[in-house]
Automatic annotation (TrEMBL):
PROSITE patterns: RIESKE. Gene3D superfamilies: Naphthalene 1,2-dioxygenase Alpha Subunit, Chain A, domain 1, Rieske [2Fe-2S] iron-sulphur domain. Residues 48-154 form the Rieske domain. PANTHER family: CHOLINE MONOOXYGENASE, CHLOROPLASTIC (PTHR43756:SF5). It comes from Rubrimonas cliftonensis. Transmembrane segments: none annotated. This is Rieske 2Fe-2S family protein. The keyword ATP-binding does not apply.
């Protein structure tokens, strides 16, 4: 990892400080190895990041291993059904305990020299270390873990930002009806985008590009919700947008009055742990993100008992998500190198839903399999442009990309807070 006091840090600090408000970042912050290493240290090792869901380790003895850069974290379901997180490193000579992904174990046993740990992290057997060896000082190193209604967050720093409890207070009531803590992962994909992770996040933070690139996704929402230039619309289109805005405001107030938290909460600039969340009206069939807008799964999520509650969005540092009556979607971003980013997508359904009976997998996944592929192409184009000698930071639209500017401002603030 880079040291923020090293000479190289000054160039990154200068680039961060010189970033023009409401513009993209200087190219080296997207393309350089030094910036990538700094990002991993400050954002992915210093802040809360989302890494999965409770359904990734649903039963006693289940382990879900997630790699964050060169660091591997094991999320373990112990014998009391509690979730814990540990560095996936044996305390003997540092061997990896388990490979990335899911497994089920009785104990955590190092494959190198068979040091053995309880699911709670205690070292219980260290062969041939002698009677004077103190096992209690060689337990697995814990990692900060916070479960919020089934979403799993970790922080690799020694001291994690305390405002995760504020996030829980906001997200908890919004997510509770979806029963995410008991949901199962119906399908999961991994896609490596050929671009910097910040370009992946920027691409997601705006829908300026949606109409021309995402026909499947665009049918499931109302474009007016993502901003527009009123002077660029015809009188007819402007009237339709204004009518939708009035309907949206009235619907939001009705949802709130009925006990469904829906108003936008935006805590991005000035916050350590960022969150933007809102419930939006859905387009097309009005029920779900499927080819026809109707539900894909007949067994609804959690305690949901109606189909007219739209799409609850949540955006955070390395994730975005959609939760609807019939299924949920979680997108997780993990940087691999300056020009490669892993996007892991999880489709969530009711634990008791049966594939082929309650849902058809191709229908459940169709919209976002298409959308993810389209986004990967766009991110690659953006990264190619950032490498070009002709690249200069460009302006964001003040009508359709304000959330993108908020996100990049948050990124700059957090990097500077960590000494860059």
């Amino acid at each position: 990892m880079l040291d923020a006091s090293a000479p190289l840090a000054s160039s990154i600090s200068d680039l961060l400080r010189l970033r023009t408000p409401n513009h993209t970042l200087p190219a080296p912050l997207y393309t350089g190895q030094a910036a990538f290493d700094a990002d991993m240290q400050a954002i992915f090792h210093g802040e809360w990041i989302c890494v999965g869901v409770s359904g990734d380790a649903p039963e006693e003895g289940d382990v879900y291993v997630v790699d964050v850069g060169r660091t591997s974290v094991a999320i373990v379901r112990d014998d009391d059904m509690g979730l814990r997180a540990f560095h996936n490193v044996c305390r003997h000579r540092g061997a990896r305990l388990l490979p990335a992904g899911r497994s089920t174990v009785g104990k955590l046993v190092c494959p190198y020299h068979q040091w053995t740990y309880e699911l709670t992290g205690e070292l219980i057997d260290a062969p041939h270390m002698g009677s004077a060896f103190d096992r209690a000082t060689h337990n697995l190193k814990p990692v900060h873990l916070r479960a919020i209604e089934g979403l799993l967050f970790i922080c690799l720093a020694d001291a994690a930002p305390a405002d995760i409890e504020e996030i829980a207070a906001i997200l908890g009531p919004r997510l509770a009806p979806y029963g995410l803590a008991d949901a199962k992962v119906a399908h999961e994909t991994e896609l490596v985008e050929l671009g910097n992770w910040k370009l992946t996040m920027e691409n997601n933070r705006e829908c300026y590009h949606c109409a021309g690139n995402h026909p499947e996704l665009s049918a499931t929402f109302v474009s007016a919700d993502f901003g527009y230039d009123p002077q660029a619309l015809s009188a007819e289109d402007l009237a339709a947008a204004e009518a939708h805005n009035a309907r949206f405001c009235a619907t939001t107030e009705a949802w709130e009055a009925e006990g469904w938290p829906s108003r936008m909460v935006d805590r991005t600039r000035g916050f350590a742990t960022m969150l933007r969340t809102q419930r939006l009206i859905m387009g097309s069939g009005g029920e779900s993100q499927t080819p026809d807008g109707k539900i894909a799964c007949t067994k609804l999520m959690g305690s949901m008992d109606r189909l007219d509650l739209g799409d609850t969005h949540a955006w955070m540092s390395n994730m975005w998500s959609h939760f609807m009556a019939d299924h949920g979607l979680l997108f997780l971003v993990f940087p691999l190198s300056p020009d490669r980013t892993l996007v892991r997508t999880k489709w969530l359904v009711n634990r008791d839903a049966r594939e082929g009976l309650d849902y058809q997998l191709d229908r459940l996944t169709a919209v976002w399999i298409a959308t993810n592929a389209q986004d990967a192409h766009l991110v690659a184009l953006a990264h190619q442009g950032a490498l070009d000698a002709g690249y200069v930071p460009g302006p964001y639209s003040t009508f359709t990309e304000t959330t993108l500017d908020d996100y990049i401002t948050w990124y700059v603030e957090r990097m500077q807070a960590h000494g860059w």
